[in-house]
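From the shared-data thread, chain only:
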Amino acid sequence: MKKRKKILVLISGSIIVLLLLMAALILIAPKVIESDFVKREIVAYLSKKTDVSLEFARVDVSFFPRPHAEIRKASLLVAGKVSAEIESLKVYPKIWPLLSGKLQIAVLKAQSPEININLPQSKDHVKKNHDPSDQKDSREKLRLALIPIISEIKGLSLLVENGKVNLVKEKIPPLWFNDIHIRMDMSKQLKIDMACKSNLWKEISLKGRLDLTTFKGNGSVDLICIRPHLLPVYILPNDTLRVGDSELNLNIAFKTESMKNFDAKIKGSIPLLPLTRNNQKVDFKNVNIDGTLNIAEDQLSISILDLNLDYPRLDLSGEFEMHKTPPRVKLKLEGRGVDVPSLREVALAMGREVSEVQYIFSIVKGGKVPQISLEINGKSFDDFGKLENILIKGSMLGGKIHIPGIDLDLDEVKGDALI
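Structure, as tokens:
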């Protein structure tokens, strides 16, 4: 009985102490949080961390259900190039540091932020010879630059609802991103869940996680109805290749090991891809691709597991590798079920100024190719245009061949070829 009484006394005492602490917190915290000092500290904190001048209509402070400050009608401007208007920005500080006079942010919640970014005009770039170690140095510099940033944001949670971003560049239609929703937790492991719409796509969804210490992570990106015909306007405005109206669905699953290795699995499909080059238009039909990408410290590799098209009719697989030390590039492609007439039409339209393409298809004019392989090796991309670096193997059925010089046409050609 005595033992039970002691337990009851301990439990009752603990409950009373907790109630007293909660009562003290309720009485003291509002006085602390509602002070002008805390309001100034929150605004100063945000201004310092974003390195911009922050203006707002007013700041409301509330204790229930959780201590927070709400900055209403906030606006900021960065060097005349970036401006933002935020309908509501709620700041949730960590309670115990706040009671001791220190401000540490636990949660930032932005409602209806609208950001406008003025992009710089395109300039002619001078071609430079880059040292192979430049990329490695850049990754190390990025890693070192991220360390203090990660230290500042560690433990912070960010929520964005109904956000908008507009990218503006002179003489080019604005690029916009609407209905942005972000949930980001930046504890030891960064977790992000983001979705938005854009004039570049119908919808994008990004989910991923990244260890902020080791930089190991994984995630996935789903893009629905990408509009690739808009991309060259922003990326290659002066390029001779033009993409017609089209919509692409794309899924990318990725993982990274530190900042030295990046792997991705890519799947995509596009019903119609119109391309125009030198006023010659070609409609690629029912394009489906399944492949992988690997970026390592000293090499890049791309694998096409399966690429198939209805027009020009072909099934393709292959690999591309680029090594920095020693410098080496390699391309290997294998085609199956190739329809020569449709491939010839596309090649002649897209490669009118390429003499090798014109020469090959002045000889090969029709037929079916059950299997063909192409292999190119060299030290740089310049070597890809040299015939001595190109190896072609293939077989043909029902071929139509023209032999120049003697002006001879052959039909129903069957056999193997090695070039």
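Residues 31-35 have pLDDT under 50 and may be disordered.
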